[in-house]
Design goal:
Strand order of the largest sheet: 16-15-14-17-18-20-19
Strand content: 25-35%
Distance between the termini: 66 Å
Structural class: alpha/beta
Largest sheet: 7 strands, mixed
Length: 394
């Protein structure tokens, strides 16, 4: 067994059970991609068993902090069993849910979502890549699902020195599905859609928009970065008079139209703009348009803290424009899915945008990832998705 020894004082994060060891913390030692290594303090004290990623700044991702733990097929099967059991206790009323959420489930780099009887997995780090076949077999056994589709095409693979891989890992079949949540039907494709096919993490936020639309009776809603229209369906189902959806993907907007049809919603109450969101917001401001509710759910702008400053400017700009488009009493649903933008920083960005727009906003609610996307006390980075519901004061 190869050993990595840390520099003096660099053991504290592992002692707090944080699973990452950065390259700058290592005094000596290494391993092959995905190889299990022992991590010791500068004094030679055992700290963790982890997977080595020699091509990554995150040089080791911890599997276990128990010196007596064997990292073998049984270890992965037990970790998967516990992750799946946690979701079963949540009682999520949907045929689409996250079964494994990486570090938060003790399986760094692994994401597994379930759509009906089909699993979709992303292997985003060298460790889970090395154990891919063991993990795939255990997933099918534990869930009873006959199929597993691989969507290992996230940018993190490149940081690990791994190529992008997509396709059926176990079984085969159609890749188009219908997600069922909150009584709605949402079409998706696990091969072509974003992430593993859909944004399951926004399940609760879609319901929140529905409930606000029902209570506040929004006449005009603007859904920015709308993708396939999940928030548009939620708003219209909640009784909104009209929803304008903006996205730069024509195919996504076509699926949004189909999703409205699937739910029996009136297409005359909807408009779809294949356009740049920033340019559209500026045009709406120039035209003096107003919307009772605006959804801002942009793509990841700051994957790491190193990108935070540049991303903060982009987030501030779109939020400033959105505030200008709200009448008194209008509501902004604004989100960031960037891991490099923390909760406190996101709050400051939105507050600064409101100030620049000369708006006094009341924060009605904080939103985050759905409960099947947990963060843990030891790994706060798991809270990548954060959202605010802000009302422009009367």
């Amino acid at each position: 067994m190869k050993t990595i020894r840390l520099k003096p004082g660099k053991e504290r994060s592992l002692q707090r059970r944080h699973p990452w060891v950065f390259d700058g913390a290592i005094a000596k030692g290494g391993g092959d991609p995905g190889e299990t290594v022992r991590v010791d303090s500068a004094e030679g004290e055992f700290l963790a068993w982890g997977a080595c990623s020699p091509n990554s700044k995150i040089r080791v991702r911890a599997w276990s902090f128990d010196q007596g733990q064997r990292i073998d097929a049984a270890f992965f099967r037990d970790a998967l069993r516990r992750a799946i059991a946690l979701r079963e206790r949540m009682g999520i009323a949907s045929n689409g849910l996250r079964l494994v959420h990486g570090e938060s489930d003790g399986l760094p780099g692994l994401v597994v979502d379930r759509y009906g009887d089909t699993l979709v997995a992303q292997f985003g780090a060298a460790g889970v890549e090395r154990w891919k076949d063991v993990i795939a077999d255990a997933l099918l056994e534990l869930t009873g699902c006959p199929r597993l589709y691989e969507r290992s095409d996230a940018s993190a693979r490149g940081l690990e020195g791994l190529p992008e891989v997509t396709g059926w890992l176990r079984g085969d079949g159609p890749t188009a599905f219908e997600l069922e949540e909150h009584g709605w039907r949402l079409g998706l494709d696990i091969a072509q859609g974003h992430k593993t096919g859909y944004y399951l993490d926004q399940r609760d936020s879609r319901l929140a928009l529905h409930d606000y639309a029902k209570r506040l009776k929004f006449a005009q809603v603007l859904n920015c970065f709308s993708y396939t229209g999940g928030f548009s369906v939620a708003a219209l189902a909640g009784g909104a008079g009209h929803v304008t959806s903006i996205d730069s993907s024509g195919p996504a907007l076509e699926q949004a139209r189909e999703n409205l049809k699937l739910n029996g919603l009136d297409l005359s109450r909807a408009a779809f703009l294949d356009a740049d969101v920033n340019a559209s917001l500026r045009q709406f401001v120039a035209e003096g348009r107003q919307f009772d509710a605006i959804v801002l759910d942009p793509p990841k702008l700051a994957p790491t803290a190193a990108h935070a400053e540049r991303a903060a400017r982009a987030y501030k700009d779109i939020n400033r424009l959105a505030f200008k488009l709200l009448p008194p009493g209008g509501v902004l649903f604004t989100f960031s899915c960037s891991g490099g933008i923390g909760v406190e920083l996101f709050h400051k960005i939105v507050a600064s945008a409101a100030s620049d727009a000369d708006v006094d906003g009341a924060i009605l609610q904080r939103l985050g990832g759905a409960c099947d996307h947990p963060m843990t006390t030891a790994f706060p980075e798991g809270e990548y998705l954060k959202g605010l519901v802000v009302m422009k004061k009367l």
